[in-house]
Amino acid sequence: MKETLLHVDGMSCPSCIRHIDGALRGIAGVEKVDVKLREGTVLVKHDPSSAPTNVLVEALRDAGYESRPRAA
Q1: 0.85 surpassed by pTM
Q2: Which residues of 36-61 are buried (b: 16+ CB within 10 A; e: fewer)?
Q3: In a 3-state reduction of DSSP, which class is residue 71?
Q4: Do 9 and 65 contact (CB within 8 A), yes or no?
Q5: Structural domain for 42, as ranges
Q6: Cα–Cα distance measured from residue 32 to residue 44, given in angstroms and rounded to the nearest whole number
Q7: Between 20 and 30 A from 59 (CA), which of 18, 21, 38, 44?
């Protein structure tokens, strides 16, 4: 398992947290999602062989949020 910290643009309310959490938890290989609204980040614990970072970013884009990896 790997932990990836993503910076997410456009998070502004508790509803955003639910949308982001749902988009990422729907990916096979994602074990844990920790959304920090105030920091604008999401920490994802995932299996990189089945849920690589680019898949996480794409899922967030599909949910309406731009994101990019950040150094943890």
Answers
A1: yes
A2: eeeebbbbbebeeeebbbebbbebbe
A3: coil
A4: yes
A5: 2-70
A6: 6
A7: 38
* 21-44: pLDDT as tens digits: 999 999 999 999 999 999 999 999
Triad 38, 40, 37: Cα angle to 5°: 40
Distance from C-alpha of 15 to C-alpha of 21, rounded to nearest angstrom = 10
Give the chain's domain count: 1
CA distance 47 to 37: 24
CATH assignment of the domain containing 64: 3.30.70.100
Task: Locate 29 and state its tokens.
Answer: 């290989």
Name the H helices within 11-67: 14-25, 53-62
